[in-house]
UniProtKB/TrEMBL annotation:
Keywords: Hydrolase, Signal. Transmembrane segments: none annotated. Residues 1-29 form the signal peptide. It comes from Chrysochloris asiatica (Cape golden mole). This is Valacyclovir hydrolase. Gene3D superfamilies: alpha/beta hydrolase. Residues 57-188 form the AB hydrolase-1 domain. One of its GO terms (molecular function) is serine hydrolase activity. InterPro entries: AB_hydrolase_1, AB_hydrolase_fold. Coiled coil: none annotated. It comes from the Eukaryota.
């Protein structure tokens, strides 16, 4: 069984690297209609991008080592700017929300959820909808459960509520960034510098594996029944980084949620199929 998991992890590593390659976005690609700023939240200067002028506020929550710019360029550029005000943030220790350096105490997802909600309150939004990818999806679930009166609607994809043996094998497969291709490493090295990038990736693996040692590998599974907002779960059926049973579990335990499957979608389905994804999101949020 261990050999099978290692083999799967090797395949998934190659696919993850191709996913990360799609995250490199030149600064000029975001255009002049996007503003960039920092604001003090919970003692940290959090960086965010903002676009649009609509009444419906939408917060984009990035994945591991991600930032608003690297993870959500097609959403920042193309979500309807008359209907929505889109904010894409860099969680503390990621992107341009440094210092501080990123760390991973056992409550790091809860900390991110509080930071995210407090950021949007600081920006004077009365309510907000959440679009959370991967780690950002976990953060969104926690925020929706803990701050139900503040969350309007939520879309998540590539998220998991617990950690399994299969997940552990995947995480170990990406821990050593020296094994990543040069093409994959370069955009993250440009953002972080090699040392910070490598050290943070290794710390992330150790951080996420903390949950493997908790009962049922629990990250936020106990919070799912407390989610009250309308929730859309999108899952790419070719996502080998987050197996489909995770999406099914969240769907079963978030009351009234919808599960939308994208047959050709992989982990970065919002980048590979941006037009389809954006249309799906706009329809759900409206």
């Amino acid at each position: 069984m261990a050999a099978v998991l290692r083999g799967r992890a090797s395949v998934r590593l190659r696919l993850l690297l191709s996913t990360l390659e799609a995250r490199a976005v030149p600064a000029s690609a975001l255009g002049t209609s996007v503003t960039s700023a920092k604001v003090d939240v919970n003692g940290v200067h959090l960086h965010y991008l903002r676009a649009g002028e609509g009444d419906h506020a939408v917060l984009l929550l990035p994945g591991m080592l991600g930032s608003g710019k690297t993870d959500f360029e097609p959403q920042i550029q193309s979500l309807n700017k008359k209907r929505f005000t889109v904010v894409a943030w860099d969680p503390r220790g990621y992107g341009h929300s440094r210092p501080p350096n990123r760390d991973f105490p056992v409550d790091f997802f809860e900390r991110d959820a509080k930071d995210a909600v407090d950021l949007m309150k600081t920006l004077k939004f009365p309510k907000v909808s959440l679009l959370g990818w991967s780690d950002g999806g976990i953060t969104a679930l926690i925020a929706a459960a803990k701050y139900p009166s503040y969350i309007n609607k939520m879309v998540i994809w590539g998220a998991n509520a617990y950690v399994t043996d299969e997940d552990e094998a995947i995480y170990h497969g990406i821990q050593d960034v020296s094994k990543w291709s040069k093409r994959t490493r370069e955009p993250l090295e440009a953002l972080y510098g090699y040392d910070y990038f490598a050290q943070t990736c290794e710390k992330w693996v150790n951080g996420i594996l903390q949950f493997k040692h908790l009962p049922d590998g629990n990250i936020c599974r106990h919070l799912l029944p407390h989610v009250q907002c309308p929730t859309l779960i999108v899952h790419g059926e070719k996502d080998v980084l987050v197996p489909g049973f995770h999406a099914d579990f969240i769907h079963r335990h978030v009351k009234g949620s919808r599960l939308h499957l994208m047959p050709e979608g992989k982990h970065n389905l919002h980048l590979r199929f941006a037009n389809e994804f954006n249309a799906l999101v706009e329809d759900f949020l409206q």
